[in-house]
# Entry
Amino acid sequence: MIRAVLRVLLSIPILFVAVHTIIRAIRHFFRFPMPQFLADLIDNPLRRRIQPADETALRHGIEPGMTVLEVGPGNGYYTLATARRLGAEGRLVTVDIEPKMIERVQQRMAEEGVENVDARVADVYDLPFDDDTFDVIYMIAVIGEIPVPARAMMEFQRVLTPAGTLVFSELLMDPDYPLAQTLIRLATDAGFRLKKRRGNFFYYTLIFENASGEIDGTRIAP
# Structure
């Protein structure tokens, strides 16, 4: 009986690794936004333990009164914590290309009585915002879903203020998990400079600052 239980317990991580490997292989060739029905599956107890919402908002450098852009809100778990951290004077805009995902976040914010969140459908390649709008742009296990991340990063640079920061938090269990060095290279090529790095191989947060300069109010490439 004990041996049978041990076999079952040992088979769980093996099965997880096998499924994870298969999904990663598929996602390598076919990148697409996370479907709405998978939001709760990805927002699981293990992830919440490793990336607690309130602690993640602090790790991202969110301060009261900021104007922040969240890319890929999932079911709104981190959206809610960030909105509360920003306070009444702050503003959080959260975007996703999947309308049903945005509808879900809008409903959750309404149920929680959160009024400083603007959830809308948007394309990261063509964000509907003016230049120099946001103090922080962050995404959690999202950049790997974007087919051409370098193109998106150029758009992130456009809508960030000159003193703004671009933040990525990643977790190994995510099928689209990128190596930290890959993101550093992509961000550097887009005109960002690594400001802070936290975590380890299994989960990490990278904070980038805008490395572009300005002459008479006009940005120039570094």
